[in-house]
Write a structure and sequence with these properties.
The protein contains 17 helices and 13 strands. The protein is an alpha/beta fold. It folds into 3 domains: 140 residues, CBS-domain; 178 residues, 2-Layer Sandwich (Beta Polymerase, domain 2); 138 residues, Four Helix Bundle (Hemerythrin (Met), subunit A), CATH 1.20.120. The strands form 4 sheets. Strands 1-2-3-4 form a 4-stranded mixed sheet. The protein has a 4-stranded mixed sheet with strand order 10-9-8-11, with helices on both faces. Strands 5-6-7 form a 3-stranded mixed sheet, with no helix packed on it. Helix 13 runs antiparallel to helix 14, helix 14 packs across helix 15 and helix 16 crosses helix 17. This is DUF294 nucleotidyltransferase-like domain-containing protein. InterPro entries: CBS_dom, CBS_dom_sf, CBS_domain-containing, DUF294_put_nucleoTrafse_sb-bd, GlnD_Uridyltrans_N. It holds the Pfam family DUF294. Keywords: CBS domain, Coiled coil, Repeat.
């Protein structure tokens, strides 16, 4: 599969402007400078002069007639050619350019570009419009993230893996390094996105390795992720939530194509399990025929949830609204997202049902502000900071993001975007985001402290010092305020 097939997005515009958070904002808004553009006949000397004037480190070679990008030339490459290889200053720059450079559509999210650059080991990505014309140039300095925390060696180990055993070792190294970063004080948002980005690379490499073992149908397809992975919020205790979308040439062939994909999907699920990504207890995995669907079937599934919001179906299906593409042809997934954010705001009954479900779980605080407990026999006197903590923020943010037709899937990004859409004060939004990340920090600390997966998200307040108990209470009070806003909005 080509590089553009693997990571390119469609030319759809997720959101006008930059309402999304920094990791899911459209790349178009992150390109800080107009790229230096030269034609193939431009001399090396003139190109160097243009780069010096613009204080840039790369130029794009563009065909004058069509306006399509032909290649990329970097300052480092030209200095090597001149200083080491004895290249001439009057030679045309096309003689030394990198032909067919990696491209990504300008409206793809930033996280997708981060993963692509890390996977391919490149320093620049060309941004293109729907018609293939140059829209900008992104460099590593524009996309900080996966280069931090010693990730380069981990990325190299992932890309060098040739079998599942090697992938298992690479995944273990990633998790051990993430734990070190957390203990050294790395911020929760940065850590989760760092970990999610490397987990993306692990999953992509696994899919690559297994793809070679199967004769897959020659149709566009994409591996999708949901839940915490879709939200870029993976922590140290996570399971698989994934599916497959494919585009059959005609509806009559859908079942046959699904049957051909299922053994491949099941093999990927098995390999991910061996690498530490536990199988989903609810069987929300691509290897399940229920979640290996054509583009039309996925749209029909979401349409059913919107039109007939039955409580049980909503409870089961909310994590699907956090979907994003991981590997393959991203365009069908992006088109599904564009359809969803257009259609969802029209279904008031859906949002009324979703709000009712969201408010069924309250923060574990009593009327006087003391902690309350759920009488769990295995873990008495503990708070479930996933169900009664992080999920309170996640569910509210998801509902409002869908209501306002926002592209983001990450909870913090959604809260920021919703704050702008509702014209709320920046301080209020910042407090909500900070509270969410504080709950996440307590969850992560517990996950690192216990080996019992059933207790990975359960915290006994008595194990916290007085300051941390107070901080946790304040974070849960923020969740209570979010729910109060939702209750008032829907008169519940």
């Amino acid at each position: 599969m080509s590089d553009t097939d693997t990571q390119a997005a469609s030319g759809l515009n997720p959101v006008a402007g930059s309402d999304d958070g920094p990791d899911q904002a459209p790349l178009r808004g992150l390109a800080r400078h107009r790229p230096v553009v030269v034609n193939p006949a431009t001399s090396v000397r003139e190109t160097l002069l243009l780069l010096a004037q613009a204080q840039a480190d790369a130029a794009v070679v563009v065909d004058e007639t069509s306006g399509l990008p032909l290649g990329l030339i970097t300052l480092r490459e030209m200095l090597f050619v001149i200083g080491i290889e004895g290249g001439g200053l009057e030679a045309p720059v096309a003689a030394y350019m990198i032909g067919a450079p990696l491209t990504i559509t300008a409206d793809a999210p930033a996280h997708r570009a981060k993963v692509m650059m890390a996977k391919k080991g490149v320093a620049h990505l060309l941004l293109t419009d729907q018609d293939g014309r140059l829209a900008g140039l992104i460099g590593q300095t524009d996309l900080l993230g996966l280069r931090a925390g010693g990730a380069e060696a981990l990325v190299a180990a992932i890309n060098a893996a040739r079998d599942v055993t090697a992938m298992t070792e690479a995944a273990d190294r990633v998790h051990r390094r993430a734990a070190e970063l957390f203990e050294s004080g790395m911020g929760v948002e940065a850590l989760c996105q760092w970990l999610s980005g490397l987990n993306d690379l692990i999953a992509m490499r696994i899919i690559e390795l297994i793809e070679d073992e199967f004769d897959l149908p020659a149709v566009p397809w994409c591996w999708m992720v949901f839940g915490s992975e879709g939200r870029l919020e993976q922590t140290f205790s996570t399971d698989q939530d994934n599916g497959l979308i494919f585009v059959p040439p005609d509806s009559e062939r859908t079942d046959a194509i699904r049957a051909a994909f299922l053994p491949f999907c099941q093999a990927v699920n098995d390999a991910l399990h061996l690498c530490g990504f536990e199988r989903c207890r609810g069987q929300i995995m691509a290897g399940n025929p229920e979640w290996c669907l054509s583009a039309d079937e996925w749209r029909a599934r979401f349409d059913g949830w919107l039109r007939i919001p039955e409580p049980e179906a909503l409870l089961h299906g909310t994590i699907f609204f956090d979907f994003r593409p991981l590997y393959g042809h991203c365009e069908p997934v992006d088109r599904l997202r564009a359809w969803l954010i257009d259609q969802a705001p029209r279904h008031n009954r859906f949002f009324q049902a979703l709000a009712t479900q969201t408010l069924e779980t309250a923060p574990p605080l009593g009327w006087a502000g003391q902690f309350t407990y759920d009488r769990n026999r295995d873990f008495p006197h503990t708070l479930d900071l996933k169900t009664q903590g992080a999920r309170l923020f996640t569910d509210c943010a998801r509902l409002w993001a869908l209501r306002h037709g926002l592209w983001a899937t990450n909870t913090a990004d959604r809260l920021r975007a919703v704050g702008q859409a509702q014209q709320r004060g920046g301080g209020d939004t910042a407090a909500e985001v900070e509270a969410f990340h504080l709950v996440q920090r307590f969850r992560i600390q517990q996950q690192l402290n216990t080996k019992d997966p059933d207790g990975a998200n359960r915290v006994d307040p008595d194990d916290l010092n007085e300051l941390h108990r107070l901080m946790l209470k304040e974070a849960l009070k923020q969740a209570k305020r979010l729910q109060l806003r939702l209750r008032q909005e829907y008169a519940l």
